[in-house]
Amino acid sequence: NGFGGSGNHLIAGPLTSSGGCEYQVVAFPYLYETASLHPLYLVVYVVQGLTRPGFDFARHPASVLSNGDLGWIQSTSFFVTGLLLIAGAAGMRRALHPGRAGTWGPLLFGLSGLAMMAAAVCSAAPVDGFPPGTPAGPPTTISTTGLLHFLVAMVGFLAWIVASGVTPMFHGRW
Fold first, then answer.
1. pTM
2. Could you tell me the pLDDT band of residue 4, with boundaries at 50, 70 and 90?
3. For residue 127, which phi and psi values (nearest 5 degrees)?
4. Do 161 and 105 touch, CB atoms closer than 8 A?
5. ∠94-100-106 over CA atoms, to 5°?
6. What backbone torsions phi and psi does residue 96 show, to the nearest 5 degrees?
7. 99: three-class secondary structure by DSSP
8. Rounded Cα–Cα distance for residues 74 and 51 (Å)
9. Which residues sit opposite 10 in a β-bridge?
10. Residues 133/69/72/66 CA torsion (nearest 10 deg)
11. pLDDT at 66 over 90
């Protein structure tokens, strides 16, 4: 089937042009780190969303948690998630290279990681009553850092979406 776990390693078998598989053993920790980033990010987001006064899951994006006195928690979560995405991209490259999946997938996931790290540095604009003291409704102006946050988030999400499509397509697992 192309992929199988083996202790601290991952056995990856990219399809050859003749339809067979070539197996190689690659370092597993990089790929494990990527698998851990989703639960880590979600736990930090949910705990903050439940404990930060004025935050409403229905009205506020996760990014606005980077505002206020405890905003450093969300910013740190963005930064660590970005680092883990880059580490996972390195592991993916080792597992899938050579080949288009081993080139484009890791590059795009790595770009997504860089965008997450940039989002950590550029806080989102306060919006719709969060943090407390912010006027209700959409902001009438946006700061430079808020605009940069929006732009790098857009690049990161787009890179993630494209990587999620091209990696299995190029690897023959579509």
1. 0.75
2. very low
3. -150, 145
4. no
5. 45
6. -110, -10
7. coil
8. 13
9. 5, 26
10. -10
11. yes
